[in-house]
Write a structure and sequence with these properties.
Blueprint: E1 2-6, H1 15-28, E2 35-41, H2 43-54, E3 62-70, E4 76-84, H3 85-95, H4 99-114, H5 123-134
Parallel strand pairs: 1-2, 2-4
Antiparallel strand pairs: 3-4
Helix pairs in contact: 1-4, 3-4, 4-5
Protein backbone atom coordinates (compact mmCIF):
# COMPACT_ATOMS: atom_id res chain seq x y z
CA UNK A 1 0.00 0.00 0.00
CA UNK A 2 1.20 3.47 -0.85
CA UNK A 3 0.31 6.34 1.46
CA UNK A 4 0.76 9.97 0.44
CA UNK A 5 0.73 12.63 3.16
CA UNK A 6 0.87 16.35 2.39
CA UNK A 7 1.78 18.34 5.51
CA UNK A 8 2.43 21.60 3.71
CA UNK A 9 0.02 23.86 1.85
CA UNK A 10 2.14 26.32 -0.12
CA UNK A 11 3.04 24.04 -3.04
CA UNK A 12 0.44 21.94 -4.85
CA UNK A 13 0.96 18.19 -4.83
CA UNK A 14 -1.00 15.78 -7.00
CA UNK A 15 -1.21 12.81 -4.65
CA UNK A 16 -2.66 10.42 -7.26
CA UNK A 17 0.28 11.08 -9.61
CA UNK A 18 2.71 10.09 -6.84
CA UNK A 19 0.68 7.01 -5.99
CA UNK A 20 0.98 5.97 -9.64
CA UNK A 21 4.72 6.73 -9.73
CA UNK A 22 5.47 4.73 -6.58
CA UNK A 23 3.20 1.95 -7.84
CA UNK A 24 5.20 1.78 -11.07
CA UNK A 25 8.45 1.67 -9.10
CA UNK A 26 7.06 -1.08 -6.86
CA UNK A 27 6.17 -3.17 -9.91
CA UNK A 28 9.56 -2.55 -11.54
CA UNK A 29 11.44 -3.64 -8.42
CA UNK A 30 9.01 -6.41 -7.44
CA UNK A 31 7.84 -4.76 -4.22
CA UNK A 32 4.13 -4.54 -5.02
CA UNK A 33 3.03 -5.74 -1.60
CA UNK A 34 5.30 -3.41 0.33
CA UNK A 35 4.02 -0.48 2.40
CA UNK A 36 5.55 2.89 1.51
CA UNK A 37 4.74 6.34 2.86
CA UNK A 38 5.62 9.51 0.95
CA UNK A 39 5.27 12.75 2.91
CA UNK A 40 5.56 16.31 1.66
CA UNK A 41 6.62 18.72 4.39
CA UNK A 42 7.90 22.24 4.93
CA UNK A 43 11.46 23.34 5.48
CA UNK A 44 11.29 23.40 9.28
CA UNK A 45 10.00 19.82 9.47
CA UNK A 46 12.69 18.40 7.17
CA UNK A 47 15.39 20.29 9.09
CA UNK A 48 14.15 18.76 12.35
CA UNK A 49 14.20 15.27 10.83
CA UNK A 50 17.63 15.81 9.30
CA UNK A 51 19.01 17.01 12.64
CA UNK A 52 17.47 14.18 14.63
CA UNK A 53 18.20 11.25 12.33
CA UNK A 54 21.13 12.33 10.15
CA UNK A 55 22.88 14.62 12.68
CA UNK A 56 22.91 17.47 10.13
CA UNK A 57 21.39 20.71 11.39
CA UNK A 58 20.18 22.03 8.05
CA UNK A 59 17.25 21.47 5.73
CA UNK A 60 17.57 19.04 2.85
CA UNK A 61 15.39 18.16 -0.13
CA UNK A 62 14.62 14.48 0.56
CA UNK A 63 15.13 11.94 3.32
CA UNK A 64 14.51 8.21 3.21
CA UNK A 65 13.92 5.97 6.17
CA UNK A 66 14.22 2.35 5.02
CA UNK A 67 12.58 -0.26 7.20
CA UNK A 68 12.60 -3.36 5.03
CA UNK A 69 10.92 -5.41 7.69
CA UNK A 70 7.84 -7.51 8.23
CA UNK A 71 5.64 -6.17 11.00
CA UNK A 72 3.52 -8.18 13.44
CA UNK A 73 0.52 -7.44 11.20
CA UNK A 74 2.21 -9.49 8.46
CA UNK A 75 2.77 -6.53 6.14
CA UNK A 76 6.16 -5.75 4.67
CA UNK A 77 7.17 -2.14 5.33
CA UNK A 78 9.68 -0.84 2.80
CA UNK A 79 9.93 2.55 4.52
CA UNK A 80 9.19 6.27 4.41
CA UNK A 81 10.22 9.06 2.06
CA UNK A 82 9.99 12.70 3.15
CA UNK A 83 10.30 15.54 0.62
CA UNK A 84 10.62 19.24 1.48
CA UNK A 85 8.33 20.92 -1.05
CA UNK A 86 9.77 24.46 -0.55
CA UNK A 87 13.30 23.25 -1.23
CA UNK A 88 12.11 21.28 -4.25
CA UNK A 89 10.38 24.43 -5.55
CA UNK A 90 13.62 26.43 -5.29
CA UNK A 91 15.59 23.68 -7.00
CA UNK A 92 13.02 23.47 -9.80
CA UNK A 93 13.26 27.24 -10.39
CA UNK A 94 17.06 27.06 -10.58
CA UNK A 95 16.92 24.13 -13.00
CA UNK A 96 14.21 25.80 -15.07
CA UNK A 97 11.62 23.05 -14.94
CA UNK A 98 8.25 22.48 -13.26
CA UNK A 99 7.95 21.68 -9.57
CA UNK A 100 6.16 18.42 -10.42
CA UNK A 101 9.26 17.18 -12.25
CA UNK A 102 11.55 18.01 -9.31
CA UNK A 103 9.19 16.29 -6.88
CA UNK A 104 9.14 13.20 -9.12
CA UNK A 105 12.95 13.15 -9.24
CA UNK A 106 13.14 13.36 -5.46
CA UNK A 107 10.50 10.64 -5.01
CA UNK A 108 12.47 8.32 -7.32
CA UNK A 109 15.69 9.15 -5.48
CA UNK A 110 14.06 8.45 -2.12
CA UNK A 111 12.55 5.18 -3.32
CA UNK A 112 15.92 3.95 -4.55
CA UNK A 113 17.36 4.65 -1.11
CA UNK A 114 14.58 2.52 0.41
CA UNK A 115 15.72 -0.30 -1.86
CA UNK A 116 19.28 0.00 -0.55
CA UNK A 117 20.91 2.08 -3.27
CA UNK A 118 23.27 4.70 -1.95
CA UNK A 119 25.43 7.42 -3.42
CA UNK A 120 28.41 5.11 -3.67
CA UNK A 121 26.63 2.05 -5.03
CA UNK A 122 25.09 3.01 -8.33
CA UNK A 123 22.16 5.24 -7.40
CA UNK A 124 23.05 7.78 -10.10
CA UNK A 125 23.06 5.13 -12.86
CA UNK A 126 19.77 3.67 -11.67
CA UNK A 127 18.20 7.14 -11.46
CA UNK A 128 19.30 7.89 -15.02
CA UNK A 129 17.46 4.77 -16.26
CA UNK A 130 14.31 5.67 -14.35
CA UNK A 131 14.36 9.32 -15.42
CA UNK A 132 14.33 8.28 -19.07
CA UNK A 133 11.24 6.17 -18.38
CA UNK A 134 9.30 8.41 -15.95
CA UNK A 135 10.21 11.91 -17.08
CA UNK A 136 10.24 11.62 -20.85
Amino acid sequence: MITIINRQTKHPVRARAFERLLGELARRYRRTGAEVTLSFVGERAIRTLNRKWMKKDRPTDVLSFPLGDKAPDGKFYLGDIVIAAPIAARQARVKGWPLERELRLLAIHGYLHLLGFDHFAGIEEEEAKLHRIHLA
